[in-house]
Amino acid sequence: MLDTDVLIIGGGLVGASFALALASQNQALKICMLESVEASSQAQPSFDDRSTVLSKSSANLFSDMGLWSDLAKIVAPIKHIHTSEEGQFGMSRLHASDYDVDAMGYVVDNKGLGTQLYTQLQRYPNIQIISPAKVTSLQVFANHYQAELLNLGTQTHEKCQAKLVVMCDGGRSDLAHQLGLSRQTKSYQQAALIANVELQKNHQGWAYERFAKQGPIAMLPLPGFQGRARSALVWTTSLSEIEVRMGLTDSAFLTELQSQFGHRLGRFKGVGERAFYPLNVQKTNELVRSRLAILGNAAHTLHPVAGQGFNLALRGAALLAHNVLSNYTKGLDIGSLSSLNEFAQVQNQDAARIQGASHGLVSLFSYQNSVIQLTRNLGVLALDHCPLIKGCFARAAMGLDVHKPTFR
């Protein structure tokens, strides 16, 4: 039987980050991470063609884990943020230089982030990665969980005993259903269309959030590719329109995108492979049980409008890691419910705040009433011209308005 301190179910971006947060601070703690696809496989669902926005606070957390020096080589810094609404006069602009930081955030492609995480994990002998494999059953005892593992390559079974099980297996977790973990789910009846767009001119570190009538359009700076300037597109669109836009020729797609976004990035010259995913907001009704904790999309999802999904998940991973490490160092039970409840209380507050802000932003810009539009425009103008409000908004965008767990 395999014996470990922490069993992590799911080796995507969140699971791998949590494993690194633990191992980078304590190499005596035994960690086992389970992933249903080959660890280096291009089929890993977390390491897809999407790009992830890392807030300034997330960069600080990765720095604490010893990852940032390598990660910094493949990210594009967000030096400016521009927010506007289609057909309206109001706009706001934030500049990193106004807050004495090199960037307000960073954009990294998921494949690159996943590769860097797994490269770093290989350096720690106290991490055992089992893949491809899945958990077929979980049984809780007084002092541990016992998991039945199925090796998907050899079709052999193995038992694993762990003091703490952490589920990071995504928003459609079969295991959560098996354990009777219920969720609250609300569909936006929208989808996010993603693609990389080649630009006529360099983005100069500008990130754009354009609120069009059908939904927000985000254009996020990416590192250049073969001498060509690129931005990552996240285009929120109705479910009725998504198939139409996915079926357009590249030329027709870029023409429609240009008409809704405008020419702040010059002419759009090309578009990469397009993909889309439906948008839902959901939260689990139980973030923790005795010897069990849930992280990432398995715990909560939100609208991508502000690019805060992974940042929220990473803060949760760091917070839980801090909780586990503190108890382990003191010789306390790392799976005790009272200790895990402390983590859950803080994480639930953070999630409620971010989910509420994201949902509120989407709802606010969905109303087309002329009075509401005028009020929105005046609000955006006030944001752009009031340093105090602007500073608060900037700190929130950088994730610096939340207490960061410290490992040292």
Structure description:
The chain has 408 residues and is an alpha+beta fold. It is built from eleven helices and 20 strands. The strands form three sheets. Strands 5, 6, 12, 13, 14, 15, 16, 17 and 20 form a nine-stranded mixed beta sheet that branches. Strands 1, 2, 8, 9, 10, 11, 18 and 19 form an eight-stranded mixed beta sheet that branches. A hairpin with a 5-residue loop joins strand 5 (80-85) and strand 6 (91-95). Helix 1 (13-23) runs parallel beside helix 4 (110-121), helix 8 packs antiparallel against helix 9 and helix 10 (370-385) crosses helix 11 (387-397). The longest helix is centred in the last third of the chain and has 28 residues, at 337-364.
Count of DSSP E strands?
Answer: 20
| Range of helix content | 25-40%
Shape: globular
Overall mean confidence score, pLDDT: 87
Report how far the terminal alpha carbons are from each other: 34 Å
Rg result: 22 Å
What is the count of helical runs? Answer: 11
Largest sheet: 9 strands, mixed
| Stretches with pLDDT under 50, minimum 5 residues | none
Structural class: alpha+beta
Itemize the secondary structure elements and their pairings.
Elements: E1 2-9, H1 13-23, E2 31-34, E3 51-55, H2 56-64, H3 68-71, E4 76-78, E5 80-85, E6 91-95, E7 105-109, H4 110-121, E8 127-130, E9 133-140, E10 145-151, E11 156-167, H5 174-178, E12 183-199, E13 206-212, E14 215-225, E15 228-238, H6 239-247, H7 250-261, E16 268-271, E17 275-284, E18 288-289, E19 292-294, E20 300-301, H8 309-329, H9 337-364, H10 370-385, H11 387-397
Parallel strand pairs: 1-2, 1-11, 2-8, 5-13, 11-19
Antiparallel strand pairs: 3-7, 4-7, 5-6, 9-10, 10-11, 12-15, 12-16, 12-17, 13-14, 14-15, 17-20, 18-19
Helix pairs in contact: 1-4, 1-8, 8-9, 10-11
